[in-house]
Amino acid sequence: MLSVPDSTRALLEEIVSSFNAPIRYAFAYGSGVFDQHGYPRGETGEGRPMIDFLFAVTHAAHWHSINLNQNPTHYPLHARWLGSDFVSSVQVVAPGMWFNAYVPYKDVTIKYGVTTVDNLCADLLYWRSLYMA
């Protein structure tokens, strides 16, 4: 595991715990989490890289149902209209992820992908799409 500053770790934990829907496993990745040359560090707002997450959940339709009620603005309008069954059916299509991007959280912007624990394990074990692996 790569180390991150305590302030970043606290922010990541705060973001994940802000979701009411049950997240079985979460990890953050990319330039918004780890120092990378060419990206500002410690700045907020404009110019700071988006913080990327992957959430593994047990039941996608249930998770999206709860999350659509808590965070409807995270989803595009058509997904709000069509509901969690639509979102989870689209999520099944390879690579098995649903992404919500450009989500404001306090003074940062996040993107999170939702997949099932089974799909994540299958990709890690069998490299089905290599998207998550």
Architecture overview:
With 133 residues, the chain is an alpha+beta fold. It has a single domain, classed as Beta Polymerase, domain 2 (2-Layer Sandwich). Helix content is 37%, strand content 22%. It contains four helices and four strands. It has a four-stranded mixed beta sheet with strand order 1-2-4-3. A hairpin with a 2-residue loop joins strand 3 (98-105) and strand 4 (108-116). The longest helix has 16 residues, at 77-92. The two termini are 15 Å apart. The mean pLDDT is 91.
Measure the end-to-end span: 15 Å
E-strand count: 4
How much strand?
15-25%
Give the biggest beta sheet.
Answer: 4 strands, mixed
Secondary-structure arrangement, i.e. CATH architecture: 2-Layer Sandwich
Q: What order do the helices and strands follow? A: HEEHHEEH
CATH structural class:
Alpha Beta
Mean pLDDT, rounded to whole units? 91
Radius of gyration: 15 Å
Number of domains: 1
Helix content: 25-40%
Low-pLDDT windows of residues? none
Order of adjacent strands in the largest pleated sheet: 1-2-4-3
Number of helices: 4
Cofactor: Mg(2+)
Enzyme class: transferase
Protein name: Phosphatidate cytidylyltransferase, mitochondrial
Subcellular location: Mitochondrion inner membrane
